[in-house]
Amino acid sequence: MHMVDGEHGHCHGHEHDHDHEHCHDHGHEHTHDHSHEGCSCGCGGHDHKPGSEQEALLSYMLDHNKHHAAELADVAKKFREVGKEDVAVQIEKAIENFDKGNLYLSLALSLVQ
């Protein structure tokens, strides 16, 4: 039996209680509580802390990379303003790669949520 929590999109193959804690660099934590009854998989109601930690790290890294890309866009703009078009173009190429990498990180994150 697979259960999908509509609010958070988490998919679970068995029933039990667990929390997901996510730390972000913007100064607060997110805790998502899920309540499941009558787990018959023999897990003893274990939690998913290792997976949650990895999910939180992935979420943090995605957010972190997005901030770096935005900062680099500002750097490119400043180089362009002082006539260093060639430098700005190279930085913008790097930003395109950040964006591509962030797409893959976002897809990976959606698979674990």
What would you report as the Rg, rounded to the nearest angstrom? Answer: 20 Å
N- to C-terminal distance: 17 Å
The helical percent reads 40-55%
Number of helices: 2
Strand content: 5-15%
The geometry reads as elongated
Q: Report low-confidence residues grouped into runs of 5 or more.
A: 1-46
Q: Please report the total strand number as a whole number.
A: 4
Question: Would you tell me the overall average pLDDT?
Answer: 73
Secondary-structure element pattern, one letter each:
EEEEHH
Largest sheet, if any?
2 strands, antiparallel
**Biggest β-sheet: strands ordered side by side in the sheet:** 1-2
Number of discrete domains: 1
The class by helix and strand makeup works out as alpha+beta
Organism: Laedolimicola ammoniilytica
Biased composition (Basic and acidic residues): 1-37
Pfam family, one: DUF8180
Region (Disordered): 1-39
Brief sketch in words of this structure:
InterPro entries: DUF8180. The protein is an alpha+beta fold and 113 residues long.
